[in-house]
Every structure is written in structure tokens, then in C-alpha cells.
From TrEMBL:
Organism phylogeny: Archaea, Methanobacteriati, Methanobacteriota, Stenosarchaea group, Halobacteria
One Pfam family this sequence matches: Proton_antipo_M
GO-annotated molecular function: NADH dehydrogenase (ubiquinone) activity; oxidoreductase activity
Keywords: Cell membrane, Membrane, Oxidoreductase, Transmembrane, Transmembrane helix
Coiled-coil segments on the chain, per record: none
Matching InterPro entries: ComplexI-like_HydComp, NADH_UbQ_OxRdtase, ND/Mrp_TM
Transmembrane segments: 40-63, 84-105, 117-150, 171-191, 211-235, 247-266, 286-303, 310-329, 341-362, 374-394, 414-437, 458-480
Chief location: membrane
Protein name: Multicomponent Na+:H+ antiporter subunit D
Places the protein is found: Cell membrane
The NADH:quinone oxidoreductase/Mrp antiporter transmembrane domain, residue ranges: 157-429
A single BP term in Gene Ontology: ATP synthesis coupled electron transport
Topological relation to the membrane, as annotated: Multi-pass membrane protein
Cellular component GO terms, alphabetical: plasma membrane
Length: 496
């Protein structure tokens, strides 16, 4: 086994083993406060180890380049993992998000054995999706991710939580089944579900063959349900609203991003840009569908007065933008989508956490309840405003950089409609974020203040850190472009 293969498999195995261990611990119920501490500490240690493994993989990548390791039979079914600049960077982002959200839960909750077992399983599944180079393996990890997320949602205490989790499972399992159908059709043609072997088989058979197109449609429609593109977005809005705030952060920032990452690999590693060029009706159909999701998500977010509703519909919109950028299929636009994916995970995850902080201290969920919060919690208000600027996409934040590259890439391809809707999206986002900021800073406080002691410095530091990272990534975008240029170039270059 290669060192890179060992590091990738260990990044999946460590949190998975931790989830199993936590779940098998024999206690009555979920434990008392001391046991909460032990579960949380164990989760923090295991995810930190996963972060160290991913960091070591990134260093190895710099020294030795991209690598693939396969378990199974040559030329047949097995399981393969792959490391390149893109997977390593996404892996590091996942560590930052999962550790940050876990830090928030130390005080705010949820707590207990069931939560931490599910959280570790969620982490393992995300890394499985990121490193998998086998489409059947990806489907398996997506199913594990769905199971873990459903259990996390059920850790909440809101009315309708269990119904929301059930609805979420039904929709996303169906989406994964549709994706799996496409994978099985492809594997039947190639005799393998390995991404690289599938790519060669499709090139030999021909990209315009109906069976190849059918496989592509099944995979993309199935993943679109997990990404929550309109009109397949209902599960995200309902689940987001019913979940505990840290779980909402995962649902907005990490869960659809994993599906988008899987879609990116399907588009460029398996079917390649030659398929997209050979089937313009299919390609344009997805682009216009993504634009509809971008527009509808923004319009529905515009009408929301509840912060979690606004964030949920904004997520629908943002992933429409990311998918549209991917389908433009130029290095510039794909880099923009990748940066937007990173930025969204960071900013939206932190936004969900800061909404939770405000709810804990001020019992505030709607825009009118945000009046005058800045006078009593200036740091929280400043973090909210900073995250709002990043979500809108104003320079020099990561949100601006992602949108800029997508728009420029679209114009390079003559897709002015994509560039136009990037601008429209920014204006609409401005329209539904600024009213919240206005109420926070210029409204007159007339609500409940449960006191500073209800939140901890660590909870606030997590959100402030996200603001700093959103700014830092935006300022360092040229460096990120250089880091990811080879991996993205390999994605969008024709294999012919």
C-alpha cells in the first residue's frame, strides 16, 4: 500500500471507527454532563487526527504529486481512492468546518452519545465522498452520509423534527438510487465502476450513444436531488428549519457541497468535457436549470423574515450558481465554482452558527426580533455583518472572487446569460441580507436578553474566525488559483 493510499483510507477509517466505538459504549441513555465532555473530547481528538492525516496528505501531494490507490481486482470491480490538489483542499476545508462546528456544540449542543456517533460517521462519509475514485464507492458513502445526517437532525428538540428527518431520508435516498442506477448502467458497459476506466469506455463507445446519455442523466438528476436544485429543493428547506443550528450548518455548508463535489467528478473525470460538447442540449438544459435554481432560491430568500428560512433558500441559490459555473466548463469558471463552493461552506456554516448564538441570547429568529442587537452584542453584530458582506459577494471576500471568476469564464464562452444572472444574484442577495443588518444596527431593542453568560467566547470566536477566513481566502485567491490550476486544468482538458 502506498503512503498516500494509507493516509486517504485512514482519513475515512479514523472517524468511522470512532463512530462505531462511541455507539457501542455501554451506558444508560446518553450520559450525564461528564460523559458529554468525554464524547465531545473524543470527537475533537479523532477529527483532529483526521485533520493531521489530511495535512500530511497535502504535504505528500506537494512532494510527489497526485496519486491513486486501488483495492480489488485489476480491470474489475474494487474500490479506489484518489488524491490531487482539489481533493486535498476540499478535505482540509471539511476538517476546518467539522472542527469549528464541533467547537460550537461544546456549549450549545446537541450533546450525547447518539449525536457524537452520528457526527463522526458524517465526517467519515464526507471524506469517503471526497477521496473516492469509484462511483459505486461514492454511492455507498452518500448513503452513509444520508443516514448520519438523518440521525443528526433527530437530535433536535423542535416540533416536527422526526418528520423532517423522515422526509429528508426519503428524498435523498431516492436521489441516490437514481444516481446508482446511472452508475450500474455505466458499470455494465465498462465492467467496472472505476472513474478512469469508465471515462475510457465512454470515449470508445461514443458520447452520443443513447445508453451513455441515459447513464449521465440518471447520475446528474440523482445528484441534483442531493444538491437541492429547484424543483428538488424542498427537503433542504424543511430539514434546515427543523434542525439544531449546528446541524443546519452541516446541511447548508457541507452536505450539498459533498454532492456537488461528486457531480464535479462525474462531469469531468467520467464523462469529460467532450461529452458536454457532444451533447449541447443536455449541457444547456443543466445550465438553464441551474440558473432557475439560482433565481428561484434568491427570490424565495428575498421574501423570508425568518433567518433560517432565508439561509436555506440562499443555499438553494448558491448551489445553482456553483453548478452553472461547472457547466460552463472552462478553467476560469470551474475555478470560480470551486472557490464559491469553499466560500459557501465556510460562510453559510458560520451564518447558521451565529443565528444560533442570537437565538440563544436574544430568543430572536425573525428580522423584527433582530432590532438593536448591535448595542448589546457588538462583536456578534460585526461578525453577522462581515458574513453578510461575504455572502453578498462584495470585494475582497471569497464570495466576490467566486462570482467574478464564474462571470468571467461565462463571458469567455459567450454565455452572457450566466454572467448576467451572477450580477442579478448579487443584487438580490444584497436585498435580503441588508435588511437584517439594518435591523441589527439601527433598530431599537425591545426584546429579550438572556445575558452574556448564555454564550461562550469559543462560540463567538468560531464565527469571527470564519469572517477572517472569508476575507483571507478572497485576498489569497491568486495563490489558490496557482495551487489548483493543474488539477482544474486536468479536469477540463479533453482526454482526446
Amino acid at each position: 500500500m502506498t503512503l498516500a493510499g494509507l493516509l486517504m483510507l485512514s482519513s475515512i477509517a479514523v472517524p468511522a471507527a470512532g463512530a462505531l466505538g462511541v455507539r457501542l459504549v455501554s451506558t444508560d441513555g446518553d450520559g450525564d454532563g461528564d460523559e458529554f465532555d468525554r464524547y465531545w473530547l473524543l470527537s475533537a481528538i479523532l477529527i483532529s487526527i483526521t485533520g493531521a492525516l489530511t495535512t500530511a496528505l497535502a504535504v505528500l501531494l506537494i512532494l510527489e504529486g497526485a496519486s491513486t490507490y486501488r483495492l480489488g481486482f485489476d480491470g474489475g470491480f474494487g474500490f479506489s481512492v484518489r488524491s490531487d490538489a482539489l481533493s486535498a483542499t476540499v478535505g482540509l476545508l471539511d476538517v476546518v468546518l467539522t472542527l469549528g462546528i464541533l467547537g460550537y456544540t461544546r456549549t450549545a449542543g446537541p450533546h450525547g452519545r447518539r449525536f457524537h456517533a452520528s457526527y463522526l460517521l458524517f465526517t467519515a462519509a464526507v471524506f469517503g465522498v471526497v477521496f473516492s475514485d469509484d462511483l459505486l464507492g461514492t454511492a455507498g458513502f452518500l448513503l452513509v452520509l444520508i443516514v448520519a445526517t438523518g440521525r443528526l437532525v433527530e437530535c433536535g428538540d423542535k416540533d416536527g423534527t422526526r418528520d423532517a428527518a423522515t422526509g429528508y431520508r426519503r428524498t435523498t435516498v431516492f436521489g441516490t438510487a437514481v444516481y446508482l442506477l446511472g452508475v450500474l448502467v455505466a458499470a455494465q458497459m465498462a465492467g467496472s465502476s472505476d472513474a478512469q476506466q469508465l471515462a475510457g469506455t465512454f470515449q470508445t463507445i461514443g458520447y452520443t450513444e443513447p445508453v451513455v446519455i441515459a447513464s449521465f442523466v440518471c447520475m446528474t438528476v440523482g445528484l441534483a436531488m442531493l444538491v437541492a436544485l429547484v424543483p428538488l429543493h424542498g427537503w433542504l428547506v424543511e430539514t434546515h428549519a427543523r434542525s439544531p443550528d449546528p446541524v443546519s450548518a452541516l446541511i447548508s455548508g457541507v452536505l450539498p457541497a459533498a454532492a456537488v463535489y461528486a457531480l464535479l467528478r462525474v462531469l469531468f473525470d467520467v464523462f469529460t468535457v467532450d461529452f458536454l460538447a457532444a451533447n449541447p442540449l443536455v449541457t444547456n438544459g443543466i445550465i438553464y436549470g441551474a440558473i432557475v435554481s439560482l433565481l428561484v432560491g434568491n427570490v424565495l430568500a428575498y421574501g423570508q423574515r425568518n433567518i433560517k428560512g432565508m439561509l436555506a433558500y440562499s443555499t438553494v441559490s448558491q448551489f445553482g450558481l456553483v453548478v452553472a459555473g461547472l457547466l460552463v466548463a472552462t478553467e476560469t469558471a470551474v475555478f470560480g465554482s470551486v472557490i464559491q463552493l469553499f466560500g459557501h461552506g465556510l460562510v453559510k456554516g458560520a451564518f447558521c452558527l451565529i443565528a444560533g448564538i442570537i437565538a440563544i441570547r436574544f430568543d430572536a429568529r425573525t428580522i423584527d426580533e433582530f432590532d438593536g442587537i448591535a448595542d448589546r452584542a457588538p462583536v456578534v453584530a460585526a461578525a453577522f455583518a462581515g458574513l453578510g458582506i461575504a455572502m453578498i459577494g462584495l470585494p475582497p471576500t471569497v464570495g466576490f472572487v467566486g462570482k467574478w471568476y464564474i462571470a468571467v469564464g461565462a463571458l469567455e464562452e459567450g454565455l452572457w446569460i450566466v454572467a448576467t444572472f451572477v450580477v442579478i444574484s448579487t443584487i438580490l442577495t444584497l436585498g435580503y441580507v441588508i435588511p437584517f443588518v439594518d435591523h441589527i444596527y439601527f433598530g431599537e431593542f425591545d426584546g429579550t436578553d438572556n445575558g452574556r453568560e448564555t454564550i461562550t467566547s469559543a462560540m463567538v470566536v468560531v464565527t469571527v474566525g470564519a469572517v477572517v477566513l472569508a476575507l483571507a481566502i478572497g485576498l489569497a485567491s491568486v495563490g489558490f488559483e496557482s495551487l489548483l490550476s493543474e488539477a482544474i486544468s486536468d479536469l477540463v482538458d479533453s482526454p482526446a
